Amino acid sequence: MKRIASSISVLILAATVYVGRASAQLIPSADGQTVYDAHLHARWLADANFAHSPEGKIIASGANISTITLGGSMDYPTAISWLGALNGWSGGAGYLGHNTWTLPTSPVDDGTQQLDQGCTSTGPGGNKFGYACTFADMAGLYSLKTSLGLQWPNTAVPIADLLAGPFHNFQPYLYWTVTNDTTTGHGYHTFSFNAGFAGSNSTIHYIYVLPMVWGAAAEFGLPVNYTPSGFGSLRVSPDGLLVYDPDINVTWLADANLAKSQPFGAQCDSYSPPPNEPAIFPAGISCIASDGAMAHNTAFDENYPDNPNKWLTGLNHFQGQGWLGISTWQLPPDPGECDGFHCLNTPLGHLYKELGLTQGTPIVDALNSSVGPFYNVQPYLYWSCGAPVTNPPCQTITPPAIAQEWSFSFGSGFQGTDLQINDLYVMVYFKQTAAQALIEAINIDLSGRPQLNGFLAQANAIISAPNSAAKAGALTGFVSRVNASIGSALSAAQAEELIALAQIN
Question: How many CB atoms lie within 10 A of CB 493?
Fold first, then answer.
């Protein structure tokens, strides 16, 4: 199913600009295919949704993997199979000549590892989760200033105000419902407009809000002549501000992320979690993120529905009559309480179907989704697994909960867990020391050239230098040789990569 973003020309600004490659912890390869991470001592694949690429699809087809969705996301068992396909590629040599690709890992409390004290929350099993985590591979990549340096709970890839059927400003992420999670007692049901999955989330997770009212809503007290939208049974008001679904007798706001432009008094300088949530937030975290997402108790207070500091209360009390003259806006319910796909008996699930979307299809594309040296970064959830890296990868660490596995969100910087049947995205890396990275880059960049052995000798002098003075001298000689070779044996990009790798050895 093709995504339904409009063809209007838009500009989407990346959340960060990557500069100064020679002094950074993240060093792109000259060909742009990989990124060396000096913090993790690992090499990432630069394409953060490689399974969705033409080459990735060929690799999946060769391994008879048919359960990767149209958007590139996949369930956890498929992610493990996908790793096997990458490592088994080219007769077992592996993709790009490496057969130790793995998922990024998250530290678990196995009695031997120090817990990540920076995380905002602690789960019932003792593991750390939430925001501000840095020990987990993806959490460190997202948060550390030496890496991408992104600020939670903001998305890594802001989405422009695109059209999606009769709606606009829809986010390819999770949306809140009013239905609480009776299992944990401190979570609420959500629906994903990235994968079509209905599940439950922690109340502190910053998620989007799409309010609704029952019935065909009047606008400022006047009846509305809703007309067909061309998408299922959905009908739209003449001014394009309301969308009515006669199948379930619900009216939606056409702006699927109104909170981004209208905080309705719910914005604050320092968010506070609800009392029953085992979380501690530092001062200075806005109640509504810059992209419009918010925690559940910012959107609504079920115990005090008229709380003036809540977004829905402000929506219903706007100018004394409510937004668009409607004062009965509410979060959509999740009456089916259905975990998984095809939950079409809920208002949000039914809407996903009416928009012509199928499992694993984001409602809009994340266009221009370059973040630092990575590209095709999805502002959504990615699979992780328990540390340490194992061989075969990710298969000897006990999952954090039955049928669940670790995940990390580039939509907000949230570290948590997800049901293994869910469809999340995949980034991969393999472990590599800085010395191995430098030697490999030299072999690739100077393969077949007479200068190869001379460069290797100078690189080994840097790596094996007995003291800092000797290392500094070897590095100076290496840099001079690299610079002298630009335009003959080396391109500018190759020279930049080699110097950057030499400097971290």
Answer: 16
Of 12-21, 206-215, 311-320, 340-349, least confident by mean pLDDT is 12-21
Residues 6+ apart with CB under 8 A from 401: 125, 417
The residue count for the chain: 505
Of 180, 153, 172, give the one whose Cα is nearest residue 300: 180
Contacts within 8 Å (CB) and 24+ apart, 200-204: 200/339, 201/174, 201/416, 202/121, 202/129, 202/130, 202/277, 202/279, 202/416, 203/273, 203/274, 203/277, 203/295, 203/296, 203/297, 204/120, 204/121, 204/130, 204/131, 204/273, 204/277, 204/279, 204/281, 204/295
- Residues in contact with 438: Cβ distance below 8 Å, sequence separation at least 6, in sequence order: 459, 462, 463, 498, 501, 502, 505
* 119 in Cβ contact with 282 (< 8 Å): no
Provide the token pair at 307.
Answer: 């709380």
With beta carbons less than 8 A apart as the criterion, state whether 175 and 253 touch. no
pTM attached to this predicted model: 0.93
- What does the pLDDT read at residue 336? 66
List pLDDT tens digits, range 465-480. 999 999 999 999 999 9
Q: How far is 237 from 103, CA to CA, in rounded Å? A: 46
Of 198, 202, 237, 195, the closest CA to residue 216 belongs to 237
- Walk across the sheet containing 212-214 and list its strands: 212-214, 250-253, 242-245, 235-236, 227-228
Span 227-238, pLDDT tens digits: 999 999 999 999
What is the b/e burial string over 464-492, where b = at least 16 CB atoms within 10 angstroms of the residue's CB? ebeeeeebeebbeebbebbeebeeebbee
Pick the closest to residue 271 from 117, 130, 149, 148 (CA basis): 130
**How is the chain split among helix, strand and coil, in percent rounded to 5?**
25, 20, 55
Q: Is 44 helix (H, G, I), strand (E, B) or coil?
A: strand
